[in-house]
Amino acid sequence: MLPVAGEPAGDSWGMLACLCTVLWHLPAVPALNRTGDPGPGPSIQKTYDLTRYLEHQLRSLAGTYLNYLGPPFNEPDFNPPRLSAEALPSATVDFDVWRSLNDHLRLAQNYQAYSHLLCYVRGLDRHAATAELRRSLAHFCTSLQGLLGSIAGVMAALGYPLPPQGAEPAWAPSPSPSDFLQKMEDFWLLKELQTWLWRSAKDFTWLKKKMHSSAAAVTLRLEAPASDL
Amino acid sequence: MALLLTLQTVFLLALVNFSTCRISKGSFEYLVYPTESLNVSIHSDEQCLDIQWAVHLSAYMWNLKMIFQIDISRTTQNNTVENKNYTTTLKPNESLQWCWHSALPLECTSHFVKIRSMVDDERYPESRIWSPWSPVMESEGQDSSGQFRIFPADIIYAEEGSSVTFCCISGAYFHEKIRFFYEDKAIQGIKLSSHTTMYEVNNVRFVRKQGSNAFCRMDSVIKGVVLYVGGVLEEPKDFSCQTRDLETLNCTWDPGRETLLEQLPNNYSLFEWFSQKKVDCAHKNWCTWKLAPDIQDTYNFTLMAENKLRQRRTSIFFNVTQQVQPQLGEISIENVSATEATLTWKIIPNHKKLIFLCQIEVSHDGKGIEYNTSNSEFTLSGLQTYTVYSVRVRCCTADHFWKWSEWSGKNFTTKEAAPSGALNIWRIVEPVSGGYNVKIFWKSLPPSQANGKILNYSIAMEPLGEVPKVDISFSESDSNSTEKFIDHQPYRISIAAINSVGSSTPSVIVVSGSAENSTQNIKEDRVNGTRDGIYLSWKPKPGETEGYVVDWCNYPRDAICDFQWKKFSPNTTSATIRSAAFQSGVRYNFRIYGLSTKHEAYLLEKKTGYTQELALDCKPEVTVDNLASTSLTLIWKDNCTDEPQYGFFKGYRIYVKPEVGGSCDAETENPAFPGNTVGCIYTVPDTKQKTFNVKKLQPNSTYSFEVKAYTGGGDSLGSIIKVTTGTHENRQYSPGHIEYE
Question: Is residue B393 a contact partner of residue B408, using CB atoms and an 8 Å limit?
Answer without folding.
Answer: yes
